[in-house]
Amino acid sequence: MKQFKGRPVCAGTCEAKALVSHGGFNTLASFQNALQFGDKEAKCGDQNNADLYQKPMVGTALCLPQTIGSTTGGMVLYCATEMKRNPKCMLFSEHIDSLACAGAVLGAVWAEEPMTVIDCLGDEFLNYVKDGMDISVALDGTVTVK
Amino acid sequence: MDYKMNLTQEELDILNGSKGETMAKVMKTLVLYGDAFDATKMVPVTSDKGHLVTSFGLKVMAPVYDLMNKLIEGGAISTQKFSVDPKPLDPKVPANFLQKLIFNKFMYSMQNMYDGQLSKLGLIDDKAYTCTCYMDEVGNVPKKGDILSWAESSAVVYANSVLGARCNRNSGIIELFGSILGKVPYFGLLTDEGRKATWIVEVKTSKKPEAQILGSAIGMKVMEDVPFVKGLDKWIGTELNGDTKAYLKDFGAATASNGAVGLYHIENLTPEAVESGADLIAENAQVYVIDDAELERVKNGYPVMWKNKDATPKLCFVGCPHLSYAQLIEWTDKVVDGLKKNGLKKVSIPTVFTAAPGVIEEFEKTPYAAKLKETGVVLSYICPLMYMNNPLCKKMPVITNSNKLRTYTTSRYYTSDEILNIITSKEAK
Fold first, then answer.
1. How many separate domains does chain A show?
2. Which domain holds residue A116?
3. Overall number of domains in chain B
4. Residue B303 preceded by cis peptide, ω within 30
5. Which of B16, B210, B214, B224 is in the most buried spot, having the most CB atoms within 10 Å?
């Protein structure tokens, strides 16, 4: 078991299984199938992301460095949250990028059930965490991995 | 709510509901957004017009339509008129029966409703659909130093770099909120410090580098950082004329889509580089040298996403971002000459050139419009990226000279010269 201290961008508590992307997470490409074609598991549609491609994202603790891609990214993340096709939480090893941050705060202010978002967890976090590990997130941004 | 940035009494009042619950939520969203980046304050948006990225009425975007309705009903309307990215549909663009059925009846069935929402929120007019809103023919051209609340990565990087305006890489919806409030959080590319280059790129090629590949190489290397590019003025000059602006448009779109660049400086050319020179370079900036071999390495690394890699292309897109007026004229001349040279009258594969409605309108007034039509090339205002963004088009072998389109879709990249050769040759391979 290991603990990492991050910064709550959208504070919350949750427990979920880890799903890890070591490269940048392309929000539009990843959620396209979930939003456009009714995939309730939100299987990742980004064929350039070898870590996540075709893996279900709903209800997971999505661990990633940052998001990349289209500036529709924040809007896509907000839609995924409102449509309940989102991960339980998003855990960023780096400082959150402006597109993901937009999605996170739009969810926090406007969505029925906002998603917990923590950033600045550090490179060690992303090196340590593996798919399927148990993650729990505390209100103060502490992430426990076991 | 807890927040860190300094708010004026008026901003605090809005946050506490003085202009209604909807405006309070708009303000709260922007304050939380700014706080995440340690913004110190809110600053006024000073440009005449805004620009939004979300132009498509996808059926599944119900949460966005609900949010737009809340804004309209709550009186939270944009304080400035805005342009928006290109439309996803144009009946002129080739599509088979099944594609047309799926596009119109299923995927984009909310387009008319969403267009109506945009109109109520502050859309300039029905010609304001383009990713190149900064073209003179469109008229959304910010001044140097203007603070913007824009999204659309290619437009933001152009406005920051070529026009010297100041804008962060905002997401869809956030950019609208900034235009509604008339203020944006002060951080990142709005600040002098955030505009300093943390990379020096030395261009050492033996010929003028292809804009789309040079931009791609730089984007992949520096990601969201600011590059200061040396040696490019040798190839494209030191004057910001129509040709260099078009080059920088395509270069910038590639830096922004292949990486996440929001601002670049070109030595002796872009306004801040001319004004401040090497003072724009941050201490300990990293160096990236680009020569012919490096560009070749980058180009050869692009994956071909076609199932049959030897398939004959079924469609060609030129114009992502939308072509400028001068580019349309240049392409028309080249296609006409190419066909003549090869003894052909029409292009050998269906080809679509895309440009802003205002640019198309001006082009249509010239004799070039008839010349282009004779070649069989379709001229459209469509967004090629949105056209490609569905399972039917994903399976099509589409070619393009756009690195942005390559990045986000299954289309295959060729240089402009290669594209010209393919579409004007008898054997369309």
1. 1
2. 2-145
3. 3
4. no
5. B214
Question: Which of B60, B168, B257 has its CB closest to that of A98?
Answer: B168
**Contact status of B203 with chain A (Cβ, < 8 Å):** no
**Residues B253, B225 within the same domain:** yes
Please tell me which residue of chain B has the smallest CA distance to A47: B305
Looking up tokens 């469509």 gives B382
Q: Do residue B58 and residue A73 have CB atoms under 8 angstroms apart?
A: no
Q: Which residue of B has its CA nearest to A45?
A: B391
**pLDDT single digits (tens) B268-320:** 999 999 999 999 999 999 999 999 999 999 999 999 989 999 999 999 999 99
- Cα–Cα distance for residue pair B301/A128, rounded to 1 Å: 30
Residue B326 CA to residue B272 CA, distance in Å, equals 25
Cβ–Cβ < 8 Å for A15, A34: no
pTM score, whole prediction: 0.95
B213 and B98 in one domain? no
Residues B58 and B92 in one domain: yes
Beta bridge partners of residue A45, listed in sequence order: none
> Is B7 within a domain?
no
Domain encompassing residue B204: 194-300
Whichever domain contains A109, its CATH number is 3.50.30.10
- Decide which of B166, B190, B214 is a domain's last residue: B190
Q: Which ipTM was obtained for this model?
A: 0.96
Q: Do A101 and B25 touch (CB under 8 A)?
A: no
Q: Which of residues 123-152 of B touch A (CB under 8 A)?
A: 151-152
- DSSP lists the bridge partners of residue A136 as A15, A144
Residue B225 lies in a domain: yes
Do B154 and B212 lie in one domain? The reply is no
Average pLDDT over residues B330-349: 98
Contacts of A120 in chain B (CB under 8 A): none
Same domain for B201 and B186: no
Domain end residue (candidates: B143, B161, B190): B190
Helix, coil or strand: residue B321: strand
**Euclidean distance between CA atoms B239 and B11, whole angstroms:** 42
Residues in B closer than 8 angstroms to A96, CB to CB, are 36
What is the spatial distance between Cα B208 and Cα B36, in angstroms, rounded to a whole number?
41
Q: Report the pLDDT averaged over residues A18-37.
A: 88
Collapsing DSSP states into helix, strand and coil, what is residue B143? coil
Mean of pLDDT values over B108-117: 95
Q: Is A75 helix (H, G, I), strand (E, B) or coil?
A: helix
- Each residue of B136-147: pLDDT tens digit? 999 999 999 999
**Cα–Cα distance between B276 and B167 in angstroms, integer?**
19
